[in-house]
Amino acid sequence: MRLVRSMIINEIYEFFFSYPVSLNLTYFWNFGVYSLLCLIIQIITGIFLAMYYTPEQNLAFISIEHIMRDVQLGWLLRYIHANGASMFFIVVYLHMFRGLFFSSYLFPREKVWISGIIIFLLMIITAFLGYVLPWGQMSFRAATVITNLMSAIPKIGNDIVIWLWGGYAVDNATLNRFYSFHFVLPFIILGFVIFHLIFLHKVGSSNILGIEFKEFDVTFMYPYYILKDLYGIIIFLIFFSFFLFFIPNYLGHTDNYIPANPLVTPTHIVPEWYFLPFYAILRSIPDKLFGVIAMLGSILVLLFLPFLYKFEIRSLYFRPFSRFFFWFFVSICILLGWLGSMPASEPFVFISQIITFLYFGCFFFYLLLLVIIERFFWRNQFYLRKFNG
After folding, report:
1. Among 201, 217, 288, 341, which one carries the catalytic annotation?
2. CATH number listed for the domain at residues 18-264
3. Residue-by-residue DSSP string for 349-361
4. CB distance 142 to 128 below 8 Å
5. Rounded mean pLDDT, 244-271
6. pLDDT digits (tens, 9 = 90+) for 87-121
7. Residue 284 among the catalytic residues
8. Sequence spans of domains, the chain
9. Alpha-carbon gap, residue 224 to 22, rounded angstroms
10. Stated pTM of the model
11. Confidence of residue 188 (pLDDT cuts 50, 70, 90)
């Protein structure tokens, strides 16, 4: 028994402390640690909130108010959980953009990237389910609108909607199902995070230069990067605490403090800020089915990114054309987020259609053009050096 225990301890030590990493990693490589921290915070606070929450349509909103007003430090738990979701998406988005900038999705890290995108998809589902649970006006409308998207599926769509609702309208059965799935999914995400870390430790982290490091270019996680991570965590928690204690409702919506009423529709229905780019893509296409396909495709296209394009040079520090394209893509994502928060009227719908076209053009046209241009310049530079030499 002692032998088994010592073997487990050694494996854990080697996994977290003796893990070899490149010498030139910056703080952009810390966002994976912040993501894991956010997941742990969400699971712990969610377990405590589940002790007081009542998944019943007549009591759900009241139970949230009971947590906020009567439970000792309940307001703190609720605000940590609500703002923690936003912090989770902030660090995950930055983590993904860092991966795109340094082409961390390329061989041999395809499994790391794919497992990360699956985690992102599960995060979106979990966050949507959690947004419904307060049973305010915006929560109720979000449940109605998003579940109704399934009706766009030919022939079986309406049956799927009825199955999701547990009846013929969004009511008590729907709330119970969403609560159950919202409680279970974070543990499934944790399982995928473990696979994500295993795949990462098998091939090693990428680095700024975009090259595979040698034995003399590496150091170990402990003590240098562990201390660097701890410093980054302190800065992140200060940022988190600013929202938590000074503007806890800034990232939410005021209509969600009104109890759900099926007879009253808010004048402007919008999801949480981290769903806005996908919501803008959905709204930009008049056809319901194609809108759903485009919204799902905007995420799923990231799964196939490692197999669509290959670059001789990975880091965008050495690829000026791709670096310009990267910031162009970031601007498109920010614009989609802004357009998703605007009313569904002209000229916002027309602009959303243009930006949606540019978004998909980034993956199916601009990247291919970049590959051709960069290979042309790279080969010409190689032959020019050979000729001059």
Report:
1. 201
2. 1.20.810.10
3. HHHHHHHHHHHHH
4. yes
5. 88
6. 999 999 999 999 999 988 988 889 999 999 999 99
7. no
8. 18-264
9. 11
10. 0.92
11. very high
